[in-house]
Amino acid sequence: MTSPAAAVASVRDVSKTFGARKALNGVSVEVGAGEMVALIGPSGSGKSTLLRSITGLQSIDPGKGSIAVFGEVVQKDGRVTGKVRAARQKLGMIFQQFNLVGRLSLFSNVMLGCLGRIPAWKGTLGLWPSADKLKAMEALHRVGVADYAAQRANTLSGGQQQRGAIARALVQGARAILADEPVASLDPVSARKVMELLVELNQRDGLGVIVTLHQVDYAIRYCDRVVALQAGKVVYDGPSTGLDTKRLIEIYGPEFEDAFWETKA
Ligand SMILES: Nc1ncnc2c1ncn2[C@@H]1O[C@H](COP(=O)(O)OP(=O)(O)OP(=O)(O)O)[C@@H](O)[C@H]1O
């Protein structure tokens, strides 16, 4: 049994090397249950690698590093442990490219969130329990896209697809959402709606949220805490209010100001 108050993720001294490149270099971060944390940093700084390591989609380097999810060790000594499957059930993953099955309806995509709970053959035949179907429609209402339930996913806008992906995480029963660039492919209005939805799930439902963002202004506006990576190391971990221009230039380099104002345009 895991304690309900256990941290979403406890990352301890984790490194990850690809060839000669250290994507993560001694990273330690703890994200508490119910926290909403933005992961920022320049391109290639290790943000996606950190998220993928937390979900066990990628093994970390052997050594003293370890990762626990809701109190269960999912990575240790360079190996993904047997606890990872149960841990993944508690983590809803959201990706930049939405990861919905394009030829299926939005409703069917959301139902896929139940697959961990019923036998795969039942899912393949669409034999979903009525309670789960109800849950899926509730989730679609909750994220504001119930009117599109019957529409094929690949005919929906990016914002509608991303909200569908969040509904799928809700149906899965996720206790935290790990979102990798969830708004990078969206227009500004859809991006704001998705960020507001993540904030609502965090504040109203108490879901933990770890979100990687290229847009620093979104990180500051929507997240109380920011963790910044640079070349695989944590260079800032604190309140988003502490991110002044000087510190952001330290994180992103001198070209930061131009890039920042571009995203606000
Ligand atoms: N599977 C892989 N094989 C080889 N190198 C990899 C692999 N995955 C990541 N890397 C390298 O690890 C480093 C960190 O990559 P990562 O994708 O984590 O960065 P990021 O901060 O998420 O970047 P971006 O903001 O551009 O998405 C980069 O130098 C990248 O090229």
Compact description:
InterPro entries: AAA+_ATPase, ABC_transporter-like_ATP-bd, ABC_transpr_PhnC, MetN_ABC_transporter-like, P-loop_NTPase. The chain is an alpha/beta fold. The chain has one domain: Rossmann fold (3-Layer(aba) Sandwich), CATH 3.40.50.300.
SSE topology sketch:
Layout lengths: L8 E10 L2 E11 L4 E5 L6 H8 L11 E4 L2 E5 L2 E2 L3 H6 L1 E5 L10 H6 L8 H5 L5 H13 L15 H15 L3 E5 L7 H18 L2 E5 L3 H7 L2 E6 L2 E7 L5 H8 L3 H9 L1
Parallel strand pairs: 3-9, 3-10, 7-8, 8-9
Antiparallel strand pairs: 1-2, 1-4, 4-5, 5-6, 10-11
Bound molecules: adenosine-5'-triphosphate.
Feature tags:
Rossmann fold; six-stranded mixed β-sheet; five-stranded antiparallel β-sheet; globular; ATP binding; binds adenosine-5'-triphosphate; 265 residues; alpha/beta; 25% strand
Explain the overall architecture.
- This protein has 265 residues and is of the alpha/beta class.
- It has one domain (34-52, 85-226, 234-259): P-loop containing nucleotide triphosphate hydrolases (Rossmann fold), CATH 3.40.50.300.
- It is built from ten helices and eleven strands.
- The chain has helices at 47-54, 84-89, 106-111, 120-124, 130-142, 158-172, 188-205, 216-222, 245-252, 256-264; strands spanning 9-18, 21-31, 36-40, 66-69, 72-76, 79-80, 91-95, 176-180, 208-212, 225-230, 233-239.
- The strands form two sheets. The chain has a six-stranded mixed β-sheet, with helices on both faces. The chain has a five-stranded antiparallel β-sheet with strand order 2-1-4-5-6, covered by helices on one side.
- A hairpin with a 2-residue loop joins strand 5 (72-76) and strand 6.
- Helix 5 packs across helix 6 and helix 6 runs parallel beside helix 7 (188-205).
- It is globular and about 50 Å long.
- The N and C termini lie far apart (48 Å).
- The chain binds adenosine-5'-triphosphate.
- One of its GO terms (cellular component) is membrane.
- GO terms for molecular function: ABC-type phosphonate transporter activity; ATP binding; ATP hydrolysis activity.
- Keywords: ATP-binding, Cell membrane, Membrane, Nucleotide-binding, Translocase, Transport.
